[in-house]
Design brief:
With 162 residues, the protein is an alpha/beta fold. Helices cover 49% and strands 18% of the residues. A 5-stranded parallel β-sheet has the order 3-2-1-4-5, with helices on both faces.
């Protein structure tokens, strides 16, 4: 079974990687495809840089950096995986990767770097609508109410340091 793990380096995308590792530890037999999609260069970037190869190199380096933590976690867990950094519109490019690697499923975070107040980020919503394979959304872990209440109380305490 091949499973796509889209990773952008955000904490929620890393939670999806941790979830995938737990599934393997529980007996799932799977290979993973770590993928990062970089947005295409803007017209401004193309005008300022003048070197398409330099722009591609910067995108590849940014993508490799975004994948590095997930790569290390999967390697440490001795889980087979491929990695791909692609350039394009994220949801459409991820669907291309699903088809190219013949993935059977996707495991991803509810939000990426562009986190909003919506239940799911734009890329997650697009994949839910258009993916040819099942998509598992890993939601953020809920903190116990006692932790949230303690944080709230700490924020309300006046600063007594001179």
């Amino acid at each position: 079974m091949n499973i796509l793990l889209p990773v952008d380096g955000s904490p929620l995308s890393m939670e999806a990687v941790h979830h995938a590792i737990r599934l393997v530890a529980d007996g799932l037999k799977a290979n993973f495809v770590l993928a990062n999609v970089q947005e295409p260069s803007s017209l401004y970037e193309m005008v300022v840089v003048h070197d398409p190869e330099a722009l591609r190199r910067v995108s590849a380096e940014a993508g490799a950096h975004a994948l590095s933590q997930a790569d290390a976690l999967l390697a440490q867990a001795d889980i087979e995986h491929d990695m791909e950094v692609a350039i394009g519109q994220p949801a459409h490019t991820l669907i291309d990767i699903i088809e190219r690697y013949e993935c059977d499923a996707v495991i991803m975070g509810a939000h990426g770097m562009g986190e909003s107040g919506a239940a799911f980020g734009a890329v997650a919503q697009e994949l839910l609508r258009h993916s040819p394979v099942p998509v598992m959304i890993v939601r953020p872990q809920q903190r116990p109410e006692s932790d949230a209440a303690a944080d709230s109380a700490a924020q309300e305490q006046p600063d007594t340091n001179p």
